[in-house]
Amino acid sequence: MKMENKKIGVFIGSLRKESFSKKIATALIELAPEELELEEVDLYDLEMFNQDFDDEGNPAASWTRFRKQVAKYDGVLFITPEYNRSIPALLKNALDVGSRPYGKNVWSGKPGAVVSVSPGAMGAFGANHHLRQVLAFLNVPTMAQPEAYVGFASSLFDENGILENQKTREFLESFMAEYTAWVNQILKK
Length: 189
Known about the structure:
By secondary structure, the chain is α/β, with parallel strands linked by helices. The protein has a 5-stranded parallel sheet, with helices on both faces. The protein has one domain: Flavodoxin domain (Rossmann fold, 3-Layer(aba) Sandwich). The protein contains 6 helices and 5 strands.
């Protein structure tokens, strides 16, 4: 009997057309084992969080759609650039929207992983760890190893945005295999 694929939401912390994070996300989706079904989550129209709207029983339509979408995933994968040694507001807003209203955190218990991406040498180390702090509070069991800091991202892709660096490809393939094991361990399936 074939096991059902695990549905994984992929959250990208950049909206830029030529985003390195988006390119890495595309590569991760391609390299994922068959038992994971990865789906990129569009954060483009997610309105900024304001507690008043939930308190008044009038949440933004984009929040309601987003919360329902996240709730259906078995796991979550975050790909983030680093802005000022932290995560972009886009990603933080998505985390805040999904964690509210109080007691209805759609992130809770979903096995997660973080990949940080930078054109610099440090691979967005600061953003990676800030994101892990938020995920710990949101009760997202986040894979500790292997850590994924993708540095020098501007040199990893061909002119069509395809990952051509073989070492990075091998690392990301291994990362996805480990994440699959992590998802299975957390979900005990």
